[in-house]
Specification:
The protein is 52% helix and 5% strand. It is mainly α. It is globular.
């Protein structure tokens, strides 16, 4: 979805903890595979058990077959990291508990709630599930299923600093498309933006004096204007006690 933003690592962790219910493992695995492989939502929902689990083990390279790739132009293989492998292990176990053994390898990896798991979940369902998780995680901004793909692209670029590698893993024909995916580094942008801030917990933005000092200066000035002599007062506490009536 155009305009969606990527997620930072701390946001990803928060989202991972926000799935619950009978289909929590399915939904969490979809999210983790999305941010770990950069697959389009249509590609992820097109996966079958046999695509991720072979010879009784998760695959180390995930193949998005051309039959599910956008435009059906060419297949592409993406290395699986530890997060993705763990997600596959969890969802395979979930399939066994949910539908029994032996595994039907042609079954959709992310099945719909209906039809005994023989049909894949819809893109609309995936969107609503992730939207709910983003909300529970307290995230804001424009977020959708495509945020998973953009998060993968951003994180891979930060690790490799090689836009052509990112282009290859995303399956883009033009590197300009990849550039539009990367946008800005949100982690660095947020730190830089905060570093520009003139505000802090104890500093007055205009005078660079502490908030307490600034308040005292205003109070002293007002007391003098009202005819009091702050020098004759015992301490600031006495001044503040008088201020309630003097400045009111």
């Amino acid at each position: 979805m155009k305009g969606t933003r990527p997620l930072m690592n701390d946001e990803i962790r928060r989202v991972i903890s926000c799935f619950d219910g009978t289909f929590a493992i399915r939904n969490r695995s979809l999210f983790i595979l999305g941010i770990s492989t950069g697959g389009r939502i249509s590609e992820l929902l097109g996966l079958r058990l046999t695509d991720v689990y072979q010879n009784n083990a998760p695959v180390t390279d995930l193949l998005f077959d051309r039959s599910i790739v956008k435009g059906q132009e060419t297949s592409r293989a993406v290395p699986m990291n530890s997060d993705g492998i763990l997600a596959v292990q969890e969802i395979i176990q979930w399939h066994q508990e949910q539908y029994g053994n032996p595994l039907i390898v042609s079954r959709p990896l992310f099945p719909s709630r209906n039809g005994q798991g023989t049909q894949p979940m819809t893109r609309k369902s995936a969107h609503l599930i992730l939207k709910d998780a983003f909300k529970k995680a307290g995230l804001n901004g424009k977020l959708a299923t495509h945020s998973m793909r953009k998060s993968y692209a951003q994180r891979l670029y930060e690790q490799t600093n090689d836009i052509y590698t990112v282009r290859e893993m995303l399956g883009h024909n033009d590197v300009k498309t990849t550039q539009s995916y990367l946008g800005v580094n949100y982690t660095k942008l947020r730190k830089a933006t905060e570093a520009m801030s003139l505000m802090s917990e104890k500093t007055n933005v205009y005078t660079s004096t502490s908030v307490g000092e600034a308040a005292d200066e205003i109070l002293f000035g007002e007391l003098v204007r009202r005819g009091y002599d702050p020098g004759e007062m015992v301490n600031k506490k006495e001044i503040r006690n008088i201020s309630a009536s003097a400045v009111a």
